[in-house]
Design goal:
InterPro entries: MetalloPept_cat_dom_sf, Peptidase_M13, Peptidase_M13_C, Peptidase_M13_dom_2, Peptidase_M13_N. It holds the Pfam family Peptidase_M13_N. This is Membrane metallo-endopeptidase-like 1. Its main location: membrane. It is found in: Cell membrane. This protein is mainly alpha-helical. Among the domains are: about 200 residues, Neutral endopeptidase, domain 2, CATH 1.10.1380.10; about 240 residues, Collagenase (Catalytic Domain), CATH 3.40.390.10. The protein has 31 helices and seven strands. A four-stranded mixed beta sheet has the order 1-2-4-3. The protein has a three-stranded mixed beta sheet with strand order 5-7-6, with helices on one face. Strand 6 and strand 7 form a beta hairpin. It is globular and about 80 Å long. The N terminus is likely disordered.
Length: about 675
């Protein structure tokens, strides 16, 4: 009888839960557009004046909303709020996207292998081995790398153990050994890139490091690294002062002019032309398993710097030079590894260590053919409008120059995801030589770093005929430099390609059911920004074939172009420090806006979900909210850097809108308002 009563009660309970009654009404699920309308308004600080600080107006409550959402969503964060507040919460929109991607990959890596094909299983198993080895770390110990990889077979690192033999240290051999394991831009830069005159082929480029790469690290950062590997405070302080002095001398070499210009020469000839560099010793480390072809060529730039570098290094003590290289190596490894031993950080480290496999897996998880079709259509509309802008010829270029630009625009393509379906075999071949362990994170890291460098140098022997017959974009050369740990889109100049990672196709940036206005204001701006990089100061160097034979000098001779460029340069004191980025922002906002609204002043009906705003006001609010972010609570030094980045995003929004006349008109800003530029800049 009791069993029958329980059964009857269960049936009654289920019936009551699934049947609407007058006492209990069911609520219809919220649509994507309703959810986004609610989110857009929750981020805004309507007490701020849009003509004085539009970023505060659009994003003033973003940080509060994110903290509330994550405190409900993340149990680890709520359990120990003070400890994780500055680490786990994403600091901007792309951070939210990556947080979502990492969580999904984490679930997949923790699950048993359910792949349908043997090749998928093999790649996924390698990724799981790396992830498990990372999770077993306690804690992340940089000194392990120094023990696994000494500067040469004849000596250990200085101040680490008792095996340091300064007479056996050779700086160029050590650089080559570390270059094989991913280090670059220390003392010099060596990389494999598409050739300037034939982008289908590759060549080695040798150059000085960038100015940023030789910027003095600072004694504080060096002391922190030295303490991490077990040095005493006294030793760390003394060594940091010594290395800092060398680093400042090195940075001053950046001022040397390259009066010889780029030169292409055979490997054997370089050894006699610049004997003090001893380049063959470097290459024998990088191509340690291959015999060097002395007739092969490379392209070398900034030869005066390389001569002065050799003199500087020879004048310094081996202890100083080796310690400098060691500290740069440790800083690089710290950046590559996990920031802390957590599931999310281990996934982020995995995406950095295995960029090709991670890109493939993200594509498997996030690929959505219907959404991709919408995005391609949007990209095509942006190209059409940009073609019309080029035809308007504001810069009064000659017809042949306009034709060249139109040809290049026609050549620019959109690619969704790092790999195309027909390139899956390349991913398999890339990982066939990788042998990872679930118990040796440091060994795994060195194996994967070396694999990336070796694979890039193998491109020097690529068969151009096979490449021409492939439908893929051959982006594997980016595997060493492109950070697959984020979902940011990019423009690939030698390929005339806008690359949109699959992970970007999710909220809050994209959903197939969001309004057309939001599609243009956010994804439209993102696509237009990357498209504009094909026509910025660097992009115009490249022609329709991706060769560095573009008409940048001819266009630079235009008076209208020079005036627009001078206007941009005058605004460089604040905001973005890169003129190409500022130019791309200004072009992209106009392009996305005019693609959606057209060029005629026609009023649109208001959105019933947000009737207090006009359609054009909503466009600008949605655009600005793509840049919403917060300053993380970290160490004083990190906090300062994060604050500067945050401020750059704020100024980026404000300067871009202040240079667009339609914004001021829509919000009724007077001429003295902060959101009105004294002189509006426009190039295209």
């Amino acid at each position: 009888m009791l069993k029958l009563s329980l059964v009857a009660w269960l049936i009654f309970s289920l019936a009551w839960r699934t049947t609407p009654t007058a006492c209990r009404q069911t609520n219809a699920p919220q649509s994507v557009q309703e959810m986004l309308a609610e989110q857009l308004q929750s981020y805004m600080d309507t007490k701020a004046r849009p003509c004085e600080n539009f970023y505060q107006y659009a994003c003033g409550n973003w940080q509060i909303q994110q903290q509330e959402q994550h405190s409900l969503r993340d149990r680890d964060w709520t359990r120990d709020r003070q400890r994780y507040q500055g680490q786990l919460l994403p600091t901007d929109t792309l951070g939210l996207i990556d947080h979502s991607v990492n969580r999904r990959l984490e679930l997949l890596l923790r699950r048993k292998n359910e792949s349908s094909s043997e090749s998928d299983s093999s790649i996924l198993e390698q990724m799981r081995l790396y992830y498990r080895s990372c999770k077993r770390l306690k804690p992340y110990n940089l000194k392990k790398y120094l023990q696994l990889l000494p500067p040469s077979n004849s000596t250990q690192w200085p101040s680490v153990g008792r095996g340091w033999r300064p007479e056996q240290f050779d700086w160029i051999t050590t650089l080559g050994r570390l270059r094989l394991h991913g280090l670059n831009g220390v003392l010099l830069r060596e990389e494999v890139l598409p050739r300037w005159d034939d982008s289908r082929n590759y060549s080695i480029y040798v150059n000085k490091p960038s100015r940023q790469e030789t910027q003095p690290t600072g004694e504080g950062a060096m002391i922190e690294l030295l303490l991490d590997i077990g040095q005493t405070k006294r030793t760390a302080n003394a060594l940091a002062r010594q290395v800092d002095d060398f680093e400042r001398k090195l940075h001053r070499l950046q001022e040397l002019e390259d009066d010889e210009g780029p030169r292409e020469m055979q490997l054997g000839y370089l050894d006699s032309y610049l004997p003090q560099l001893r380049w063959l010793s470097f290459m024998r480390q990088v191509r340690i398993d291959s015999e060097l072809d002395l007739r092969s060529t490379l392209i070398i730039e900034n030869i005066p710097y390389l001569r002065a570098l050799s003199d500087l290094v020879e004048s310094e003590s081996p202890d100083t030079v080796c310690s400098y290289i060691m500290l740069k190596w440790l800083a690089f490894l710290k950046q590559q590894g996990p920031a802390d031993i957590s599931r999310g950080e281990c996934v982020a480290a995995l995406r950095r260590a295995m960029p090709l496999a991670s890109s493939w897996l993200v594509g498997q998880q996030f690929s959505d053919p219907e959404s991709e079709s919408y995005v391609r259509s949007l990209f095509q509309r942006l190209k059409v409008r940009f073609g019309q802008i080029l035809a308007e010829n504001r810069m009064r270029l000659s017809p042949p120059l306009v034709h060249i630009l139109q040809q290049k625009l026609h050549a620019v393509r959109l690619q969704m995801g790092f790999f195309q379906p027909d390139e899956m075999e390349d991913v398999e071949q890339y990982h066939v030589r990788v042998d990872l362990s679930g118990h040796s994170f440091y060994g795994n890291q060195l194996v994967l770093l070396r694999q990336r460098v070796e694979a890039n140098h193998d491109l020097l022997y690529i068969n151009v005929t096979n490449l021409a017959n492939s439908t893929g974009s051959n982006l594997s050369y980016l595997s060493e430099s492109w950070e697959a740990s984020n979902s940011s889109p990019l423009y690939v100049r030698p390929r005339n390609l806008v690359l949109v990672p699959h992970g970007l196709l999710q909220l809050p940036i994209w959903h197939r059911n969001i309004s057309a206005l939001q599609q243009h204001a956010v994804m439209g701006f993102v696509l237009a920004h990357e498209l504009a990089h094909g026509f910025d100061m660097s992009g115009m160097d490249y022609d329709a074939l991706g060769n560095i034979m573009g008409p940048v000098e001819e266009i630079g001779a235009s008076r209208q172009f020079r005036q627009g460029l001078q206007c941009l340069q005058q605004q460089m004191a604040t905001g973005s420090k890169w003129i190409d980025e500022k130019l791309a922002d200004f072009v992209a906002l106009r392009l996305a806006y005019e693609t959606f609204f057209g060029v005629r002043d026609k009023r649109e009906p208001r959105d019933p979900l947000m009737p207090q705003f006009s359609q054009r006001q909503l466009f600008f609010i949605s655009f600005a909210q793509f840049f919403c972010g917060r300053t993380p609570v970290l160490s004083p030094r990190s906090q300062s850097e994060a604050h500067l980045k945050h401020a750059a995003d704020e100024l980026r929004v404000m300067q871009t809108l202040a240079n667009f006349e339609e914004f001021s008109r829509e919000f009724g800003c007077d001429k003295k308002a902060k959101m009105q530029a004294s002189q509006r800049c426009r190039i295209w």
